Amino acid sequence: MRSYMSALKAVEETGVRAWLVGDTARMIAMDAQPATLSMVAEPCDLDALAAALGNGTVDAVGGFPVLRAKVLDTPVEIVLLQGDSIEEDLARRDFSMNAIAFRGDGGVVDPFGGRHDIRNRVIRLTGDDIELVRRDPLRIVRMLRFAAELGMDIFWKTETDVRTFIESYPGQIRGMPSERWGREILNGVRRCPYNFVRLCDGYRLLSFFLPELEDLKAVVEPRTGLTLFEHAMTTLRAVQDRLGGNKIKDHQSFSLAGLFCRLGTRELDAPDLAPAAKIASGYLGRWNIPSDTIDRVAAIVMNYRAFYAPRTEEELCRDVLRDGLEAVEMTFEFASCGALAERFPGTDVLKGNRWRLEQVVGRFESVARRTDGSSRFLTGDEVMDLLKLPPGRKVGEILGGLDVAVGTGRVASRSEAEDWVLRRGCSL
Fold first, then answer.
1. 8 Cβ contact list (under 8 Å, min separation 6)
2. I need a surface site. Which of 6, 71, 97, 145 has the fewest CB within 10 A?
3. What share of the chain is helix, strand, coil (3-state, %, to 5)?
4. What is the pLDDT of residues 122-165, one digit of tens each?
5. Can you tell me whether residue 223 is helix, strand or coil?
């Protein structure tokens, strides 16, 4: 905590009073390490504060100016106090655990007992439960996200009041804009998709934002005797377990693929997953998710079962060259999750594909280390010089073939690359 307080004091040394708040204060209270410090400052000119700190930029986020800077080599985000006092500012926050502020003198402002709730591992709203969720029903989804990520329980009265609201005002929940649903669901599934969806199901929320997932409860898979919903949850549990490792870089796309991969299917071994990919693309589009993420999710859903059959090194090599290493590795990892949920018997097939993929990747990485990042030993200009060819389709075909030859181990040096190009050139 000493480094956080040093950064806060450094801000206050500019003559502006400030507090550590929000996620930062909650994480400090939980003995966790915040990557970025969130602060509120008394009313001031944020541009002048940036100048006093010697760095930083001011951007408008949601209509509120935010100063992003580094203080004592620590990233900080500073917004202006909302209300006339820190207590008023904290009263605007959703949950008691997020309504804590640390002062520069080491004191704590905790008007709603947030630290007590953190010690007791409970999530509680900062005011009248019904009124707060009536103003913004998506507070319910945020509450469940925190419960899923932090492993905390919902305060008993809050749980009772929220369940009453869901039963009494379904129309108000359904009336929330798709984009806002999307933001909350995206945040919910990014780290702990299984925990989050399980909690949403327990509060009977699935029919509001993803009725196709709710519908899977009525579809029983004859081979296992389980519903497709249960298999979908098994997939999400496996996805969540995979997120704990280092292989998955794009947690968002990986988790979303787990959320959507069963939708629109009526059997566990459905031969065509295009309906699921189409449903995923439709929802993600309405949720205003970036198009590149939509494409990655749809590609995972459509392609992961390709790893259920033996793949040759050449096929894997072409996949890597076409889609990129990260996408292929992510799709393979998802295939491992799907195989668990679908009770796919061919574990040896998956192991073989993993080994061959590792061989291909290892060769490309070895060449990259020896050529300052290239996937091959020769450039396009060098190929044209060797074959006396002008730029064009033939050169592109040769370079593509050379990439495959490198990835499959048929070419392992520059001299071998030159020989391969000359032989290939003679056959054109």
1. 18, 19, 20, 37, 39, 102, 104
2. 6
3. 60, 10, 30
4. 999 999 999 999 999 999 999 999 999 999 999 999 999 999 99
5. coil
Name the phi and psi angles at 151, rounded to 5: 65, 35
**Encoding tokens for residue 329?**
């590795």
- Residue 404's closest CA among 350, 356, 363? 363
- Position 271 scores a pLDDT of 84
State the pLDDT at residue 3: 81
End-to-end CA distance of the chain: 68
CA distances 184 to 34, 90, 140, 176, 178, Å, are: 21, 21, 10, 11, 10
Instruction: For the chain, list residues with pLDDT below 70.
Output: 1-2, 62, 428
What pLDDT score does 376 carry? 82
Which residues 6+ apart lie within 8 Å of 121 measured at CB?
A: 151, 152, 153
Q: Residue 428 has what pLDDT? A: 61
Location of structure tokens 């590149």: 292
57-61, strands of its sheet edge to edge:
57-61, 64-71, 74-80, 37-41, 18-20, 101-102, 108-109
For the chain, which residues make up each domain, given as ranges? Answer: 1-120, 211-370, 380-427
Quote the CATH superfamily of domain 1-120: Beta Polymerase, domain 2 (3.30.460.10)
Cβ pair 137, 54 in contact under 8 A: no
20's tokens: 């550590």
Please tell me the distance from the alpha carbon of residue 123 to that of residue 156, in angstroms, as a whole number: 9
Structure tokens at 293: 């993420």
Per the CB < 8 A criterion, the answer to whether 36 and 25 are in contact is: no
